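Please produce the structure of this protein holding pyridoxal-5'-phosphate.
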Amino acid sequence: MLTNRQLFSRYMGLPSVISDPVEIIRAEGIYLYDDAGNKYIDLVSGVSVSNVGHAHPSVVEAVRKQIDQYMHLMVYGKFVQSPQVKLAERLAKLLPGKLSSVYFVNSGSEAIEGAIKLSRRVTGRTEMAGFAHAYHGGSLGALSLLGDEHLKNAFRPLIPDTRMLPYNSFEALEQISERTACVLIEPIQAEAGIILPKPGFLEAVRRKCEETGAMLIFDEIQMGMGRTGKMFAFEHSGVVPDILCLAKAFGGGMPLGAFVSSPEHMSKLTFEPELGHITTFGGHPVCCAASLAAIDVLFDSKLIEDADRKGKMFADGLINKPGVKEIRQAGLMLGVELCDDGLTASLMKEFSLNRLIVDQFLFNPAAFRIAPPLTITDDEIRKSLELIIHCITIANNHTTI
Ligand SMILES: Cc1ncc(COP(=O)(O)O)c(C=O)c1O
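Below is the modeled complex.
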């Protein structure tokens, strides 16, 4: 009989080769446990999903309660389902007035698809603008606005009429015109290695969209839901998008996404033609119940307002350590840039040997990310820092020998 590890490699389609896969059998708070009884510290949160920690009791209880009532009933939008409507209302009340119509989907990629389709319906235009080093998902629409030619090239032709602009370049915004349906941007770039917008940049993008009638779409799939020290990353600049995309932590650990716009704009998917976007599982009631519980935890446990202090504890502990070139921090999301790619590769091995779950970014090979659950305690941060510094010391020795 094959072991689960062998089944993983033999029968599963995989996005990359994992040489020594680990089987996780339980997860709680910031910890994962494998089948041999080893404990891992999760400093990635399943890539910004587990903002309230793994298996938070309130989320687990909400999921159990909803499963007892009903699971899937019908394709999206046919029946009134209490978890969906309560979550839509909750979200609308947390957002500025014009963002009050919530379309639930399954994932981040689907939220992006819905948002770009909506922008094309509202404007009647086709051109779309995105930014270098942005990641928006694996579907073809999202891929068309992904900021990396290597990942795109194997799948061309993609959606035509796209323009990729350099992030933080004010001059490049001149390329946005009366032909542009949407400008898709992360208010803080994630996979680029945590790149913050220059002062005034998002405001300039907003102004350009106003001037040209292009719709501004914010991808907060990775940076939203309290991660950066505000519930939504756009609150740092005060720039409000025309469409907001959410997923990842939005589901509290369950698969859920949404794109949010004004009722007037959103109605374009309801009429002429109707069925402008269809989804079977979008807004699954169990996922919406989990999301509602997770949002309560974020506010009731004051996780959002404490994220920046905790992020600074990590930054202060790592700044000036040998090999560390720069630290970029937004709340409890850090991009730690090292002096060379070789050191990062050797450090990743040390992290794994020390059972620290730390991840690199898609588009920045010299940096690694620290994004633990927002529930991490000060003691857990100190312990994690000790381990990270130990790993950095060993990786430096390996690289300089
Ligand atoms: C910023 C951003 N947008 C979109 C996506 C796509 O989300 P999903 O993997 O749920 O399709 C991701 C996933 O990593 C992301 O980081």
